[in-house]
C-alpha cells in the first residue's frame, strides 16, 4: 500500500501482516473499514489548498501554449508584441477585480513570492530609518518565515496574538505600532479557519499612523469583494490557483499613490518595473487574467452557491453529530471554509475512514506532520480538539450531492470511532474528563 | 425554433460531454441558471446575452473535445461499487 502515504509504515512490516492487509477477509468486524469505501476518485473538498483549473481559463491559455510562444519582453517582432498584448489584457483583468490600476500589478510566481517580496522588500528598502515589523500569529508560513529572516537582518518583529475567534484585537495592534514600524502584514481570509480580519479598520489605522499595510488576500480574491482604495492597503498578495486559475503564477499589488517602494528580491533584466526580473510566463498570466475575469462575472452566483452548500453542510453535521466545534468566528468568516473539530475522535483514524473525500486537517504545508496546526493553537483550541480538526473547502464546482455524501460519511465514521472510544463512554456517563487522574504515581 | 431555445439545448448537450463530474455538473447548473436569469431580456440586451452564449458554446465545444482526449477518472459520486482490499492493492 505504498501509494497511500497515510499508510506508509515507519518500520519494516512482517510479511504476514502485509498479506492480511491485502486480503479480502475482514478479520475484525466492527473495527475494520475494509471494503466500505467506494471506488473512484475522491470527492474534492479541499478548495483552500488549491482549486481546479476552470475550463474557461484553460481555453484562454491554450493558444498561448501553442502558436503564441513569443517572449512578452521581445521588442523586435510580432511574436513578442502579441504575447505582451495578452499579458497586458490579463494585467487589466486582475486590476479590475481588486479596483486597482493595471500599472500597480506585478506578476510573480505566486502568493508566497509576493509575500516574500513585500515583507523583505519594504523592510530592506526602509532599513536605514525603520526597524520594526508587525504581523499576526495566524499568518501563512511564508509571511512568518520572511519575518524570521528579517529578524536575522536586525529587524524587530511583533507577532500579534489573536483572540479565540481568530480575529486580531485592534487596540492591541494600535499599541504595537511604533514610530519606526515599517510594515503591518495581516492576511484577509485565513487559509485554515476562514476568518476575515477587519482589513478596512486596519487599513485606516495604518494610513493614519503612516505605516505601510500589506495583506495576503490569496484566499479572498474572487470570493469576496476587494477594493484596494476602500481598504487602504498598500501591498496585496494574490494567487492564481486559488481562483480557479493555473498554478505557478500570482501577483503583487504595489500602490503608486502614495508610492510604496521595495527592494527587489530578484536581480536581472529589470522586467515588471524592475521589481521582479525574469521572463513572464505569459500563458499562465493569461490564465490568471481569464480566471479573474470569470470570477468577476461569477462572484455573486458563486457566493450564493457556496453559502448555500456551506450552510447545508454545517446544519446537517451539527444536527447529526453531537459535540462538533466550528473553529474561528461564526460570522466574520468566508463560508467556503468550514474548519470543524470532532471531540473524542482520533483524528488520523477519521481522516483514513474519510478516504472517499479529499479533505485535510489544516494547511497543505503542514499536513504531513502530526503536530496540531499552529493556527488552531493560536486561537486557543485544546490540543485534543486540534488533533481532530478537519477543514472542508467548498467551491464553485462542488455539488450538493458531494456535500450530502460527505455528511453521511462523517456521521457514520464519527459515530463508529466514538463507539469504540473509552473517552466517549466516560463522557456519556457524565464524567468530566478534566477531573480524571490518569496516572497512578502522580502525587 | 427560437434561437435561444436552440442555443440552450446545444449548450446542455455539449456540457454533458465533459468527462469531469464536477465540471459537467457545474456547466449544466450554470447554463440553466443563466437562461433563467436572462429569460425576460428583450432587444439589444437579449442579443448581447445570445452573443455571450454563442462564445460560451464555442468554448464548451473545444473543452468537451479536450476532456474526451484526456478523460478524468470517474468520481466517487459516479460509481456505485465498493473497493475490495485486493482491488485497492492492485491499483497501487
UniProtKB/TrEMBL annotation, chain A:
**UniProt keyword list:** Iron, Iron-sulfur, Metal-binding, Pyridoxal phosphate, Transferase
- For this protein, the Enzyme Commission number is 2.8.1.7
Coiled-coil residues are none
Q: Which residues form the Aminotransferase class V domain?
A: 44-404
Provide the top EC class.
transferase
Cofactor(s) the record lists? pyridoxal 5'-phosphate
Question: Known SUPFAM superfamilies for this protein?
Answer: PLP-dependent transferases
Q: Name one GO cellular component term.
A: L-cysteine desulfurase complex
Residues of the signal peptide: none
UniProt-listed Gene3D superfamilies: Aspartate Aminotransferase, domain 1 (3.90.1150.10), Type I PLP-dependent aspartate aminotransferase-like (Major domain) (3.40.640.10)
GO molecular function annotation = cysteine desulfurase activity; iron-sulfur cluster binding; metal ion binding; pyridoxal phosphate binding
- Give the family this protein belongs to, as stated in its UniProt record: Belongs to the class-V pyridoxal-phosphate-dependent aminotransferase family. NifS/IscS subfamily.
- Read off the HAMAP family from this record: Cys_desulf_IscS
Q: What is this protein called?
A: cysteine desulfurase
UniProtKB/TrEMBL annotation, chain B:
Taxonomic superkingdom: Eukaryota
Q: Which CDD domains match?
A: Complex1_LYR_LYRM4
Do you know which InterPro entries this protein is assigned to?
A: Complex1_LYR_dom, Complex1_LYR_LYRM4, ISC_assembly_LYR
The record's annotation in Pfam families points to: Complex1_LYR
Report the residue ranges that make up the Complex 1 LYR protein domain in this protein.
3-59
Q: Which GO terms describe its biological process?
A: iron-sulfur cluster assembly
Question: Cellular component per GO?
Answer: L-cysteine desulfurase complex; mitochondrion
Q: Which family does it belong to?
A: Belongs to the complex I LYR family.
Q: What is this protein called?
A: Complex 1 LYR protein domain-containing protein
- The protein's organism comes out as Tribonema minus
